[in-house]
Amino acid sequence: MARIIDEVIQGVLALGTNVIYAGSATTRATIAATDLLTTTDLAKANAFLSTKAAPVFGDGYIAVMHPNVLFDLQTGTATGAFLDLSKYTESGRALIVNGEVGKIFNVRVVTSSYIQTFSSTVTVYPTYVM
User: What predicted TM-score, i.e. pTM, was given to this entire model?
Assistant: First the structure.
């Protein structure tokens, strides 16, 4: 049941028009294998949501991404600002989200292997920041 709910929610989110494309891509159709999510992209998402006065979840926004995207983010050359979960939470705090692995630029990173992909010149794993 949870997977079905995830699919419905992702279907609605995929129709959104507030999109930040990684790398030099300007549309889904132009995303290439070298267009990987970076810390700068998450900083842009944080700035965009902050200027729109979007509510935060606890102490930050939440990015839901596929584990393959997390790998690219963590092994990128500009990942120095990535905080492991243990560095910004206290034991016993109830604010940790299931699947949360870290935080960067006020964006809490959550992984899920149930991210629906898009077809382009490569398989595209979207990241949803809310």
Answer: 0.81
